Amino acid sequence: VQGFPCVMYINGEFYGIGCFNIGKKRDNYNLKKSNKNHIQLEDGSDGQRNLITWKSTDWNVRNPEMSNYIEEGEILDVDVKTKVDRLFAYHGSGKTNMIANFEQYYTKKNIFDKIIFSQAIYDLDGIAKNYMLTTWNGNIWYHLPYDLDSTFGMNYNGLSYLPTTKDVFTHYESVGGEEQTAFLSGANFYKAILEGYKSEINA
């Protein structure tokens, strides 16, 4: 989506550096609500998403429009569910298979850029959430960053800073619980691609 950086002052008091973005509307992503190949998934209300095991409460299906679908509910449309299940099965298929079949599910440009972008701005939240998982053909998916509220070491609430001396993909390895499980599922995906394509990404 389009956006621009801004410096915010309220009543003359400095409130920080942020970004104004256009909304998460279908038209802004060129998604058609009747097209079952146009699938977009975003964070559920708990904020953490497991990339390996499908859990409906981890995700909201923003597109396509489906009969009887409720937010964070099960996907009842067989066509859409089959395409989502295909992707999640790939994520859980192991590092060797993921590298061998990577381009059947993703494009190098998008995921390589996402890896570099995440490390460059220390996009802490963007490893387990804060991106739109999107496909326009039902097969090739894209990670589209959004809601960059924990970057450059800033906590999401803007009240504290986190140490940025570590690799962003290992930051949450010691936190434990569901948060760690969700984070590691995303981090392990990115680390597997980084390891398998290291020379290309470093180039």
Please describe what this structure looks like.
With 203 residues, the protein is of the alpha+beta class. It contains five helices and six strands; from the N terminus they run ββββαααββαα. It has helices at 78-91, 95-100, 108-120, 177-196, 198-202; strands spanning 3-10, 13-21, 39-43, 59-63, 131-135, 141-145. Strands 4-3-5-6 form a four-stranded antiparallel beta sheet. A hairpin with a 2-residue loop joins strand 1 (3-10) and strand 2. The chain is globular, with a radius of gyration of 17 Å. The mean pLDDT is 86.
Gyration radius, rounded = 17 Å
Q: Give me the strand/helix succession.
A: EEEEHHHEEHH
Largest sheet: 4 strands, antiparallel
pLDDT < 50 runs, ≥5 residues: none
Instruction: Tell me the strand order in the biggest sheet.
Output: 4-3-5-6
Task: Looking at this protein, list some descriptive labels.
203 residues; alpha+beta; 4-stranded antiparallel beta sheet; two-stranded antiparallel ribbon; 5 helices; 29% helix
Short overview:
Helix content is 29%, strand content 18%. The protein has five helices and six strands.
Question: How are the elements arranged and paired?
Answer:
Blueprint: E1 3-10, E2 13-21, E3 39-43, E4 59-63, H1 78-91, H2 95-100, H3 108-120, E5 131-135, E6 141-145, H4 177-196, H5 198-202
Antiparallel strand pairs: 1-2, 3-4, 3-5, 5-6
